[in-house]
Write a structure and sequence with these properties.
Elements (H helix, E strand, L loop, with lengths): L3 H10 L6 H13 L4 H7 L5 H12 L13 H4 L4 H7 L2 E5 L3 E6 L5 H11 L2 E6 L2 H18 L1 H4 L8 H8 L3 H16 L4 E6 L3 E8 L2 E9 L3 H11 L11 E9 L2 E12 L2 E11 L6
């Protein structure tokens, strides 16, 4: 997370390491073990994670926050989609009319701050937090999604009446919310494609960003049929057709931006694989 040079200054400033000679010895050992200085001092308990990041907060001249002592409202947490929070390890924990307070372990990630400005219309106020506290707080997203998917998972093993249940699941609020979040997040991340890929025991969702497929979310296998059904409804495709490939399209308007999605659905061994191509419809001045 921190460069060895930054970390050396932090450790010396906090007097975790006595002097330059002791620092050189620790650096030598870290290099021998092919580890970063940060990983070495944490793994060998030379310094605690909290002490290290409190020192880093002083170094970067930003406040430190202990997320374990924060009670975070769900509506504030979900101002940032789970995909963004997971990928960039960032948590929204408080807000007012003009600012949103975010905690992150890497205050040099300026790109995500610009995204937050566009997404929320609020000015990000950055706090430093330990990676452990970030990971613990990210679990709150999982709890929220699992509770939303409870309706879909119930009765998913019943094979009779499956088509009816799938059609009904497409209009359930949890699935609508998940799909809306996926589409919105893909737009803000400048993704060119969304891939929803069923496997034997789970369903993975990936974005293609700058030509590289990146995993952004893994959902229970039981959610796959409802995800496919919801997208078929949006693209005006046959919800009860599962054996033949289908192609369609739909449009959404996101904060004044009209986005077109081209949908391709292909049957596979574990369910229907879905690929959506994003095309933003707005006039641009060519160079």
């Amino acid at each position: 997370m921190f460069t060895n040079e930054q970390l050396a200054k932090i450790l010396l400033a906090r007097k975790v390491i006595a002097d330059e000679n002791a620092l050189a010895e620790i650096l030598k050992k870290a290099t021998a073990e092919k580890e970063t200085l940060e990983k070495y001092v944490l793994d060998n308990k030379i310094v605690s994670e909290q002490t290290l990041y409190e020192g880093a907060a002083d170094y970067f001249k930003i406040p430190f926050v202990n997320l374990k002592k924060q009670i975070i409202r769900q509506d504030i947490l979900t101002l940032l989609p789970e995909t963004t929070a997971q990928e960039h390890k960032i948590i929204a924990f408080d807000q007012d009319d003009k600012k949103i307070k975010v905690a992150m372990p890497d205050p040099t990630n300026l790109e995500i701050l610009e995204f937050i400005r566009k997404k929320t219309g609020l000015e990000p106020e950055v706090y430093l937090a330990t990676p452990e506290s970030i990971e613990d707080t990210l679990k709150q997203y999982r709890k929220d999604i699992k509770s939303e998917l409870k309706v879909i998972e119930e009765g998913s093993e019943e094979k009779e009446g499956k088509r009816k249940k799938t059609s009904e699941a497409a209009s359930e609020l949890p699935i609508i919310k998940i799909i809306d979040t996926l589409l919105e997040q893909a737009f803000y991340e400048n993704a060119s494609d969304i891939h929803i890929e069923p496997a034997e025991k789970e369903t993975s969702i990936r974005y293609r960003i700058d030509g590289i497929l990146t995993n952004v979310m893994t959902l229970p296998k039981t959610a796959q049929a409802a995800l496919a059904a919801r997208i078929k409804v949006l693209a005006n495709l046959k919800v009860d057709e599962h054996r033949l490939p289908q192609d369609g399209r739909f449009k959404i308007i996101q904060k004044g931006n009209k986005i077109s999605f081209r949908v391709s659905i292909l049957p596979t061994l574990y369910g229907e694989k879905i690929v959506m191509r994003l095309l933003e419809e707005k006039p641009q001045v060519l160079s």
